[in-house]
């Protein structure tokens, strides 16, 4: 019971902080996602050390921060100069490895860069999407004097996370209640097809509710995003489970009492965010 209440209180506080930061302003959302990205990247690097790999942790965090801010600001600055500097900084990882006395240079370099791609870039893409919609609404408001508040970017990102949380919760409850057929036993013995299908169907219900509250997107688009979240969110969970199983660890960390680490909470976001953003780019 103590663990239940710890998990519940931590989850409630965690969700409240996230919703506030995403709703308050684009700046607080950017800061929130940067903090989550860097904490998750540090966890990933620490996990890899259990497999005798020695990533460039400090430089990886610095590079991750620079790349996050660069990608997140593409819609604002659209600067090829910034991207050129980023490319040089990425290749600097190769040079820095020359001066490190580690026995696995290829693995060290690969993990350092992959961690940024896997964890930092998805959150940066979300911010890039948000800034593009924010800039569009701000332009319309300024030129036509509509006085409209920049709500669209908030609702899109909030809706995305509500669907992520809905899918995780519904899949867990249905799987625990009636789950029998293993989804991918080699990777995650507790996941079932019943849980996946239940999560998919009930998340469609959540998508319908979002279409009523957040009318910036039509129902068909919210349903499509819900489907993307259910499929790629589940695959993201399996990918993270694969990483942990290969390293012989249960949780990615312990920063969230009762919930594990940052990667444990955002594994579905990391894989589904890029696909959702691409979909929105085609339909916006």
Please characterize this protein's 3D structure:
- This protein is mainly alpha-helical.
- The protein has one domain (2-283).
- It has helices at residues 2-24, 26-49, 57-72, 74-77, 80-98, 105-144, 152-178, 193-213, 219-247, 262-283; strands at 182-184, 188-192.
- A two-stranded antiparallel sheet has the order 1-2.
- A hairpin with a 3-residue loop joins strand 1 (182-184) and strand 2 (188-192).
- The chain starts with a helix and ends with a helix.
- Residues 136-149 have low confidence and may be disordered.
Domain module count: 1
* Fraction of residues in helix: over 70%
Radius of gyration: 20 Å
Subunit arrangement of the protein: single chain
Topology order in helix (H) and strand (E) letters? HHHHHHHEEHHH
Largest sheet: 2 strands, antiparallel
Q: Write down how many β-strands occur, each being a DSSP E stretch of 2 or more residues.
A: 2
Low-pLDDT windows of residues: 136-149
What is the strand arrangement across the widest sheet?
Answer: 1-2
Beta content comes to: under 5%
Instruction: Give the N-terminus to C-terminus distance in angstroms.
Output: 46 Å
Rounded average pLDDT: 84
Outline, from the CA principal axes? globular
- The helix/strand class is mainly alpha
Helical run tally: 10
Task: Name the descriptors.
globular, two-stranded antiparallel sheet, mainly alpha, 10 helices, single chain
């Amino acid at each position: 019971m103590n663990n239940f209440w710890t998990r519940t209180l931590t989850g409630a506080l965690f969700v409240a902080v996230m919703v506030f930061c995403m709703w308050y302003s684009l700046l607080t959302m950017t800061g929130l996602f940067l903090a989550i990205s860097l904490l998750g990247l540090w966890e990933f690097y620490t996990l890899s050390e259990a497999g005798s790999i020695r990533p460039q942790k400090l430089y990886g965090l610095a590079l991750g921060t620079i790349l996050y801010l660069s990608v997140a600001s593409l819609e604002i600055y659209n600067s090829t100069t910034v991207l050129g500097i980023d490319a040089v900084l990425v290749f600097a990882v190769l040079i820095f490895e020359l001066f490190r006395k580690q026995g696995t240079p290829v693995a060290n370099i690969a993990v350092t860069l992959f961690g940024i791609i896997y964890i930092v870039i998805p959150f940066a893409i979300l911010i890039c999407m948000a800034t593009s919609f924010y800039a569009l609404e701000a332009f319309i408001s300024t030129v036509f004097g509509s006085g409209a508040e920049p709500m669209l970017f908030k609702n899109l990102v909030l809706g995305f996370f509500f669907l992520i949380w809905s899918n995780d919760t519904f899949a867990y409850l249905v799987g625990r209640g009636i789950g029998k057929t293993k989804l991918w036993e080699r990777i995650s013995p507790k996941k079932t097809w019943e849980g996946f299908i239940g999560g998919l169907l009930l998340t469609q219900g959540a998508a319908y509710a979002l279409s009523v509250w957040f009318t910036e997107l039509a129902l068909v688009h919210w349903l499509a995003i819900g489907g993307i979240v259910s499929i790629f969110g589940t695959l993201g969970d399996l990918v993270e489970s694969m990483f942990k199983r290969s390293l012989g660890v249960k949780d990615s960390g312990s920063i969230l009492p009762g919930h594990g680490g940052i990667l444990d909470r955002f594994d579905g976001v990391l894989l589904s965010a890029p696909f959702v953003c691409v979909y929105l780019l085609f339909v916006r």
